[in-house]
Amino acid sequence: MIPLAFGLVASQVDVRAGMITVSQQVIVADRHPVLAPPKTSASVRDVPMPRFLHDAIARHVSDLALTDGGVLCLTPKRTLLRRDYYNREIWKPALAAAGLPADTTFHDLRHTFASTALAESVPISEVSRWLGHKSITTTVDLYGHLVPEASGRARDALDRVFASAAMCPQSAPVPL
Asked: Are residues 84 and 157 in the same domain?
């Protein structure tokens, strides 16, 4: 996940649609970070962008005077970020400043995104696509336990749809 975030460029942020296109990542080749395509075709995707993130990205793009092709995540020397640098210089200090456990990982943000979306009744098929899972089975295996209320919602929906049918005398149970 970190390499994908590090590869984000300003032109991949669609303000009108409220989406971010994930289409490249940062990998290390010959000990230097370089931009490369994601690992799989499923990893290329559009992900919804909350307004608070749009506002933060807009400020960041403005502060760095980035062009459309400008990579959003750079070191102070304006080079591509490496995971080790990011963890040491940015992530760990941010965790400490926020009072979060030191073992919180960047990947935990991905799980927070998925669990929050599912808790708010976003269809698991959409969450799966946004996470870049090749198969919805992966998403169901990881997050299916977070939607146990789905059977209750199904019962409620069926009750609403068929409520009028229950009022018909021919559908009423016959007393013994």
From this structure: no
pTM metric for this prediction: 0.74
Helix (H, G, I), strand (E, B) or coil at 140: helix
Q: What is the pLDDT along the chain (176 residues), one digit of tens a residue?
A: 677 889 999 999 998 899 999 999 999 999 999 999 998 888 899 999 988 888 898 898 888 888 878 899 999 999 999 999 999 999 999 999 999 999 999 889 899 999 999 888 899 999 999 999 999 999 999 988 887 677 777 778 778 887 766 565 555 555 66
> 131 lies in which domain range?
106-176
On whether the CB atoms of residues 82 and 59 are closer than 8 A, the answer is no
Which of 47, 81, 100 terminates a domain? The answer is 100
CA distances from 166 to 27, 154, 171 (A): 61, 17, 6
Two tokens at 47? 């992900």
One domain, residues 130 and 167: yes
Are 78 and 26 within one domain?
yes
Same-domain check for residues 82 and 11: yes
* CA gap 24, 147 in Å, rounded: 31
Query: What is the distance between the alpha carbons of residues 62 and 101, in angstroms, rounded to a whole number?
Result: 32
Q: Which of 85, 100, 115 is the last residue of a domain?
A: 100
In whole angstroms, give the CA distance from residue 54 to residue 150.
31
